[in-house]
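A quick word before the example. In earlier lectures we treated sequence and structure as two separate objects. From today on, think of them as two lines of the same record. Here is Xylan 1,4-beta-xylosidase written that way.
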Amino acid sequence: MNQQGVIGKSIVSLLLLGWSMGLMAQSAVQIKVDAAKEKAPMTPIWAWFGYDEPNYTYMRDGRKLLSEIAALSPVPVHVRVHNLMTSGDGNAALKWGSTNMYTEDKNGNPVYYWNIVDSIFDTFIQRKMKPLAQIGFMPEALSSHPQPYQHHWKPGDKYGDIHTGWSYPPNDYNKWAALIYQWVKHCVERYGKAEVESWYWELWNEPNSPYLQAQDRLKTYCKMYDYASDAVKRALPSAKVGGPHTTGGGEAFMRGFIIHCLKEINAATGKVGAPIDFLAFHAKGSPRIVNDRVRMGMYSQLRNIRDHLSVIASFPETKHLPVIVGESDPEGCAACGMKTDPQNAYRNGTMYSSYTAASVARIYDINAHFGTNLIGAVNWSFEFENQPWFYGFRDLATNGVDKPVLNVFRMLGMMLGNRVEVSGNFSYDYQSIIDSSVHGKQTDINAIAAKSKNSLTVMLWNYHDDDMQDNGSPVMLSLQHIPVKRAKLYHYRIDSDHSNAYEVWKKMGSPQQPTEQQYQELEKAGQLALLSVPKEVTMKNGTLTVDMQLPRQSVSLVRLVF
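And the structure line, produced from the sequence above:
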């Protein structure tokens, strides 16, 4: 090629480079955080966790994970578990657990046994956690249809196979109420009145589903609630009790429950109404396989929340009651691994992380829209003892090693004070996600921010329903009206190279029996990692700009410490 050709080619290359750089600058997502515009308290709705298998609580990896969860939160974490009243030997199994708190002697007299349930609650209290104490499920001796009682479900089995004798209403409401009374009374004696007053007592789980085996589930549940709430209040009048923990789509059941508590005859007392100190429901997403790839369904989870809050807000008596999303997750079955349920293959990597960040932020927005008092959104995921590494359960850790999603909660734990205004050229808000989800060409790049006396924190994410990763997009983050001239800047990241034990495990060759050295490396990789070295920064006219490249399915936390 002659010299003129070389020069011509170079000019074309420079023009293309300039055009490309200009396109990148134009396509950068602009995010502005105004620290002077405070919106509402950054209520730690995320500091709530739950799981089916209560006996994992005091096992080795269970204790370890609970300690980590307690340590990441600036407030006491609430924990909700199933099977606290279920009969059995205390051995854990998937979607099963037991405490054997109630049996009867040969004459039908009650025998109360608190050792196992005490071990569960002791583990929480030692970590300054608060039980979201579930009154369920039915002890075998009190079940109106006791046999078969224990199920032996495993991944791949029909989900309905779990609804055995524990899921039936009591054969004797007075004996059942006496058990509840004695349990609450025992807790007051063991932990003290002030401690138990800080808990929430709830009845059952998803009573508008086969979790409650009854012909008229609403009528049966309301009767059970009358007896249960009366027993709790007799044992501790200042206790907080509520329900009904309906599934998604259970708005009519929720409405009927509220009407009963406000206006109908109480089956236990004969008076009008029943005490109700909080309301609870569940909200789940809907992932599926599309073109051999996982496609999430956040719209379903957010719609469940919107529809239930709409019902609660429609009653003046309940609009301002505390509300708990008792299970708030991308889908419904934590113990259904990705081998038997391939739509759950999102769980090990960063897609679970970006989904969690994006959905938590939108839950704040929906609550603000209705003016309701949402205090908790329970992440129904924990850990499974003695299971294969990274099997694809919906859990926060595997064999004692943290998954990427747990680091989202570590980020949230640093977001203190009040939420502040975030604006920008965003493609999605909660309503557009409900309407069409995040299926289009544009990914959901957005942020939530909080300001305290000593810090300004911004969590950013790049999310899409389709399980793909790429280099993402440039983001220009402008922090405005910062009240100090100098601060220290920290930038944390969850992506394929940071805060990600799963990618490290795969690079090791996916060992099912890691060496001690490999285990230590995995433990370290599971912790929240910095993207860059912390540095001192100086504000110009109260403003700081932070530029970054935000990969698809990644999460960043930018933290200014004053």
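Notice the following. The chain has 13 helices and 24 strands. We will return to this example when we discuss secondary structure assignment.
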